Amino acid sequence: MRVCIIGGGFAGVGTASVLQRRGIECVIYEREAAAGGVWLHAYPSAACQNTATDYYLPCFTWEQAGIQPSFYPTKAQLLKYLEAAVKQLELDVRLNCNVTSCRRASGDGQPNPPQVREGEWIVQGRGPAGEFEESFDYLLVATGLFWTPSPTVFPDQDKYTGRILADNDLTPEVLKTLQVLKSLQGKTLAVGKTLAVVGFGKSALDQATDAADSNGVRTLHLFRRAEWALPHRVCGVHYTWLLLSRAATLWIPCWDHPSAAACALHARARWLVRAFWSLASALVWLSIARVAWGRGRVASARIALLRPFNRFIECWRLSLPLIPERYLGYNAVGLCIGHSPPTFPFLPEEDRAWLEGMQGGVQLYRHVVHPRVPGIGFVGLNTGYLNLSQVEIGALWLSAVMLGELALPPAHIQEAAIERVRAWKAAHEQPCPATNCCVIAHFAQYNDVLLGDLGVRALRGGTWPSRRFRRMVISDYADVVDEYEAQLRRRGAGAGPRHVLPRIM
Ligand SMILES: Cc1cc2nc3c(=O)[nH]c(=O)nc-3n(C[C@H](O)[C@H](O)[C@H](O)COP(=O)(O)OP(=O)(O)OC[C@H]3O[C@@H](n4cnc5c(N)ncnc54)[C@H](O)[C@@H]3O)c2cc1C
């Protein structure tokens, strides 16, 4: 079996590593000159919000890459890591290769190249040596979520004469152009231009900070409302211990709870769940407010302004910022207001019709396949807090489907599950351009269901208490592929395919 992976970001590379271990030949096409995806073009100070223990491919450690990462890995470290992974895992990554079209052989009346069987994918694009065309059994789309900036239409935009910057545009060079140095009585003073940064996500907060720190650029931070910015430590404990332990994820409302205890808690004791999150919100707020202690009234007033009106759990109901007209007097506006839902311009029109256009991005079955779009899997559209574990488990699940080891339910059942997840998200999460492509805080429930489908144990790492109370880390999932293969051997060749669990996920 030969598989084409479109996209050489973390998801594409992680998926290729899993498929290769499963004996599936794969080729990654990447349109850029290096692997890295979003990190390649991210603003200079971009760094992971995950700690280094939570952001690496489960099969390839930082140590194996020969990199000593920062506590929060930097953009440079992430790119170096991915380069090492591609090299050491001997993955077939074709750089500077932009895939422009994919079609199923005989699917659309066009003549097929010789030796191409019906149902195979014919992938076309442009590479360093000109146009290319190759055929594959299966197509995996790993083209990411954060490429198309939100359309920058805001009130009176046509009257605005300053510069509009996108979220990756605030480079040191651009900042320099916003700094104006004046000489006054022999002293050089920085008298900056003005920059309005719009939005309250990670990019906006980073860029407002970078600009404010850059000596001389007067910075205004505009946002409609504050969301919960998670402090590194809550009451002295690193946030990963509070958010990424199983004991904590049990309290997170989800469209599907794999364990009976969690189902009972969320069905019968909602008041307890609400009380838990009210307490968590109070603790998080206390930690944020502490930042201003001893720094005077101005600092306290500013922090008080940031107090979100919702509870911490509801910050997942993200809001889009409203852009007031105050930006008009500013020399530049940095728009960090998110991205549009993903599109798939290289896929056949009939497939795109199923995949694009849904508000909140495409909702897939198990966040990896669509029953109306055969022969294609999606990786990276199941992004969550332990993102690279979702990539690996999703890729393993897809490999089992491709190899006929896992049988999916009929299309109408898959579609009903898709619709229930979509409806749950619409009711419980604020619409954001890619809500449907994410599992975010529901990563533990998601991983559990996919591992359940594969017959691999969900509770991982250490002893009984540590499996429940220790924070979950990427290394917990390091041997998932080996465990799955051992289980396959135990079942024996004649056992036939496993059937996925009848869960909504
Ligand atoms: C500033 C910033 C901070 C972040 N912090 C975190 C974090 O802390 N934790 C976390 O989990 N996630 C974080 N993310 C999210 C990050 O996007 C994911 O973790 C992950 O890197 C996404 O990888 P991906 O491979 O799915 O997509 P991408 O990185 O977007 O890769 C997609 C690739 O597909 C290629 N491509 C697209 N179309 C084609 C085509 N037609 N032909 C060939 N190639 C194509 C693109 O060039 C790109 O390389 C952050 C993102 C940003 C921007």
Automatic annotation (TrEMBL):
Q: Which InterPro entries match?
A: FAD/NAD-bd_sf, FAD/NAD-binding_dom, FMO-like
Q: Name one GO molecular function term.
A: oxidoreductase activity
One Pfam family recorded for the sequence: Pyr_redox_2
Taking every annotated instance into account, which residue ranges of this chain make up the domain FAD/NAD(P)-binding?
A: 1-229
Q: Which UniProt keywords apply?
A: FAD, Flavoprotein, Oxidoreductase
**Name this protein carries in UniProt:** FAD/NAD(P)-binding domain-containing protein
